[in-house]
Amino acid sequence: MKVELKRTLIRKTSLLIAAMVILLPALKFYSIYDSYIFYKPMEVFHETISTIIPLLFPAIIVVLYLPMFIQEQRNNFIKYTTPRVPLHTYLTSKGITNVLVTGISTFLLIFLPFLFVFYIEPSLDIVTYNQIEQNSRVAVDATFTQIFNNYGDFAYGIVYSLWVSLNTILYCTIAFLLLLVIKNPFVALSLPFVYYHVFNFIAGVLNIPRFSPLSTIFPFNIEQQPIWTALLPFTFLVIILLGTFLYVKKNRKEWMI
Fold first, then answer.
1. pLDDT in tens, 179-218
2. DSSP-derived secondary structure for 206-234
3. How does DSSP classify residue 131?
4. Is the pTM of this model over 0.85?
5. Separation between Cα atoms, residue 178 and residue 52, nearest integer Å
């Protein structure tokens, strides 16, 4: 594990992670800070991590670490490694590294903009906040802001960042498992992305957007829902992960190693 993490962080992967974590939110913040009317920091935070990140979510997370694993598959690196390291140890270290790299990166992708908007930006006075007129209602409540209202802003930032990170772990683990049994790596990496957008479309057609992957992970496009509505699609994704794991384990002879 230590060797694998060290190899990952000293490669260009670290630059890709930094670009994703810093540039994506920074570019979005720059495009909206003086183009919208804001009343509260929560609105700025929602806008900063909306649109680009939710749209490309599954594609972003699978490119952080898995291309390195694909390269080792293509170069037959695994065959030359297994005489020195048991295959299950090798794959387990790869899987855990994939989870750590993508999970921590996604946590920072959400949590750093939160820290900036709520704790750093007010001292810089970049965003101009308008006064809320009497009898007017500002719609900043989204799913998970119940935590903000009950436990404060910092608790909300931590919990919501962890929530996005947990979903990231499920998607990137499914993609990793698919790489073992699907010959075309592009197809293996694309399937989580396809699932994400197909079920968004299905939820829209069935008029239940509150259960779509996008609206449960990034719930800024619909009104506030009970937190349990987000847990249903998450549970379904866990079932898909377990099913994929069992299928891959059962078909070990077909592994692309």
1. 999 989 899 999 988 999 998 999 888 888 888 988 899 9
2. TT-GGGSHHHHHSTTSS----THHHHHHH
3. P
4. yes
5. 26
